[in-house]
Design brief:
Elements (H helix, E strand, L loop, with lengths): L6 E5 L10 H9 L2 E4 L5 H4 L7 E4 L11 H13 L4 E5 L9 H10 L4 E4 L4 H9 L11 E6 L12 H4 L4 E6 L5 H10 L7 E6 L7 E6 L3 H8 L5 E5 L21 H4 L5
Parallel strand pairs: 1-4, 1-5, 2-3, 2-4, 6-7
Antiparallel strand pairs: 7-10, 8-9, 8-10
């Protein structure tokens, strides 16, 4: 009987193919099967060798064509045939990527799991906008929170603890609920004019940015019609933003020129 295959939970980074780690790229190049999310750009998925089976299980807010339970079952079933699988996720698989749920299911079936971290959206946004997540005198810490709950359940965040002027708050997937988020943070004492940077599709050629403040962020983002995913950086560090109106230069294709190095 053929032994079970291995599943690698791989972070694809925030979008720009050049933010892939070398380990992530090696696994993509060698994969027999790649199960990938919507947030992984085609330029990364298409790095796979000819003959690799590509399976899209992309989700977006309010539209989950492949429920998480079915993704878990799919990974188990494929690995049980003896094939090695790359589960390719945007950002980092353990930061709002449900990678830990998939890992638990796989391990429960005796399947080996490898975790390959990726640059998460907050780090990519910081790099492309020049906004540090911490900075002496402005922010002594940073917190990542999700602005969206499954099945549109109400947000149950600890607003009092999040309303800390000395901490940078990064909100993932918060586009639909940013009005509620900003209202609650102001209600817990954060100043209405605290700067906020909203970034759509960070690090990609389609990146869009909006520099605003806590009282105006919902109105300003709605007026811009930002495509998802949108990430919000809230805090005094936003004062250090550089060239906010700029758009990322074209990044597509640069990785392909370097792939051959990994075959040496």
């Amino acid at each position: 009987m053929r032994p079970f295959g291995k599943v690698s939970l791989v972070g694809a980074g925030p979008g720009d193919p050049e933010f892939l780690t070398l380990r992530a790229l090696r696994l993509i190049l060698d994969a027999e099967v790649i199960v990938h999310d919507r947030l992984v750009p085609s330029e990364i998925v298409n790095l796979a060798k000819k003959g690799t089976r590509l399976i899209s299980v992309g989700k977006r807010a309010g539209f989950h064509p492949v429920p998480q339970s079915e993704i878990n079952d799919m990974l188990v079933d494929i690995a049980m045939t003896g094939q090695d699988v790359v589960r390719l996720k945007g950002g980092d698989p353990f930061i709002f990527g449900r990678g830990s749920e998939e890992a638990a299911e796989l391990r429960a079936h005796g399947i080996r799991v490898e975790i390959v971290p990726g640059i998460t959206a907050a780090q990519g946004t910081a790099a492309s906008t020049g906004v540090p997540l911490t900075h002496r005198g402005l922010a002594t810490g940073v917190r990542y929170v999700t602005g969206h709950r499954k099945a549109d359940e109400p947000l149950d965040l600890d607003w009092a603890s999040l309303a800390d002027l000395d901490t940078t708050l990064v909100v993932y997937m918060g586009g639909a609920n940013i009005a509620e988020i900003s209202r609650n943070l102001i209600g817990e004492g954060l100043p209405a004019d605290l700067p906020v940077l909203a970034v759509s599709r960070a690090t990609t050629p389609g990146e869009q940015r909006c520099l605003t403040n806590l009282s105006r962020v919902a109105t300003d983002v709605e007026a811009r019609v930002f495509p998802s995913p949108v990430l919000f950086v809230i805090g005094r560090v936003v004062e250090l933003a550089t060239d906010v109106g700029a758009v990322m230069p074209e990044a597509v294709g640069r990785v392909n020129d370097k792939v051959k190095v990994l075959h040496v």
